[in-house]
Amino acid sequence: MAFDISNFGPLGGQSRRGKAPMWWTYTTTDAHTAVDAAGYFGSSYGGVYNHLEIGDVIYVCVTSSGALSTAGVHIVKDKASGTVDVTNVTAFTVTDSD
User: Where in the chain are the domains?
Assistant: First the structure.
């Protein structure tokens, strides 16, 4: 699947752009390995390229059949020529023991 801008947004009050890394949230059914591919967050997808800066953090929730599957963060590593490249996921432990 491809990036879906409707599932992407800022986390909290983001009034300090350019002064400190921003946090973003994103929900997808794509695996983290797809999300961290160079160009997944690019200029072809609703201008998200213009929102992201190097060092920004993207909190990603991966869902499967309507339930949370995995979650973690990707950090914007490189940005050039309409292509954003993020780091591999730093995964969170997602458990529900009840």
Answer: 1-12+44-98
